[in-house]
Amino acid sequence: MGSMGGSRHLNALNAPRYWPILRKEYKWVVKPSPGPHAIERSIPLLVLVRNLLGYAETAREARRLIAGGHFKVDGKVRKDYKFPVGLMDVIEVVETGELYRVIPVPTRVLGLVKIPREEASFKLCRIENKVTVKGGHIQLNLHDGRNLLVRVNDARNPVEDVYETLGAVKLSIPVQQLLDYIPLKEGVIAIVSGGRNVGRVGKVVSIHRGMKRYRSIVTIEDRGGNRFQTSLDYIFPIGLEKPLITLPEGAW
Questions:
Q1: Half-sphere exposure of residue 48, counting CA atoms within 13 Å on the CB side?
Q2: Main-chain phi, psi angles of 199, to 5 degrees
Q3: How many angstroms separate the CA atoms of 250 and 229, rounded?
Q4: What are the angstrom distances between the C-alpha of 67 and each of 64, 146, 249?
Q5: Which residues contact 64 (CB under 8 A, 6 or more apart)?
Q6: DSSP 96-111
């Protein structure tokens, strides 16, 4: 009888291409646990600690550091070395106080940018979907697996429901408190999270909506006045007048 469910192992050659691992030297690589981000859009905490941060030379050393509670993700200590770390997550090295945010970067898809302490108190989450729940309240389903409940006073006239899908909310971490909202509209600043223009930042010039989200085209203009187009599915709003998050030097 064949095995039930998915495999617990991941061949290094089949891992996402942006993972900074030695594919031809080692056959296997750690497979992320089910969590807030999909495999193709995340990096296991072990790979992040060993290959990106450089705090360990081997997987065994990285596992000991992670099990010792030396790293926080979004303000919470994570001891699972398979924990998936993804877009906009905040990483903290407890002993040194170093803080990083995971953002899209050109060619490498996901990378780390160092951030100040005051910025580590929040993260941006894109609204992937929203539903009406019991009592007429609105539930926002976010890109990192979170569900945010927006309470309304009158279900027949929900004036509190100003949120639209593909917009972004600013949440405090680790306490999930709604701080701000960035709608997806012309004039907002956005970062591209996928495709050949991944990591590029600019103002949204126009949005041409098609039958599906991935068929909708967004035109963006960067600070140099260069315009480019990408799929609506790759757009992540990060600010109205200026970016709310730290970006790599030269990105904006």
A1: 31
A2: 90, -10
A3: 20
A4: 5, 24, 33
A5: 56
A6: T--EEEEEEETTTEEE
| Distance, CA of 29 to CA of 188 (rounded, Å) | 39
Distance CA 60, CA 101 (A): 25
| 1 pLDDT higher than 50 | no
d(CA 145, CA 171): 13
Answer yes or no: is pLDDT of 210 > 90. Answer: no
C-alpha 207/C-alpha 184 separation (Å) is 9
- 124 and 169 Cβ atoms separated by less than 8 Å: yes
User: Residue 82 gets which letter from DSSP?
Assistant: T
Kindly state the greatest CA–CA separation across the chain.
Answer: 61
The residue type of 237 is P
In tens, the pLDDT along 229-246 reads: 999 999 999 999 999 999
